[in-house]
Design goal:
The protein has 149 residues and is α+β, with helices and mostly antiparallel strands. It has one domain. The chain is built from five helices and two strands.
């Protein structure tokens, strides 16, 4: 296991990408509003994000004060479609269940912030498909990350 990891990525916008999402008819013509229940698709843009992950040993040795902890993680692939989740959300729901198991947490202890923008008129949102019994009970505990408050 590593003591320090820098993880991140960038996403550059191109005409190819924009035209691809436009052909899927999932772009919202309105300004970006990821937490709005009435959003109507996604807004594309360029971005970058990086995290520095450190072990407990490094945290204690360097007297660091972390913003958050990674208690569990998971990755699944339901192989439903190359650009769509399965209608029942089994891949995402399975990943959430595995991450909770690894963390030792129960669903009602979890908190999440969804910044997903794949809503389409006449279709259920990704959130609705992924929201199984465990995540429904956790909805009461939603919060915005400190940087969005």
């Amino acid at each position: 296991m590593l003591d320090i990891v820098v993880a991140g990525g960038t996403d550059a916008l191109s005409k190819f990408t924009l035209n691809g999402f436009n052909s899927l008819m999932i772009l919202d013509r309105s300004p970006c509003r990821p937490f709005d229940a009435n959003r109507n698709g996604l807004n594309l843009g360029e971005g970058a994000g990086f995290l520095v992950l450190v072990s407990d040993q490094v945290k204690n040795t360097e007297h660091l004060h972390p913003y958050t902890y990674v208690n569990g993680f998971s990755n699944t692939n339901d192989a439903y479609h190359q650009t769509a989740s399965s209608p029942d959300g089994r891949g995402s729901f399975g990943a959430m269940q595995k991450a909770l198991t690894m963390s030792g947490l129960h669903p009602e202890e979890g908190r999440q912030a969804d910044a997903e923008g794949r809503r389409r008129v006449g279709h259920r949102t990704v959130d609705e498909r992924e929201r199984g019994p465990e995540t429904r009970s956790a909805r009461r505990n939603r919060y915005l990350p400190r940087t969005l408050r």
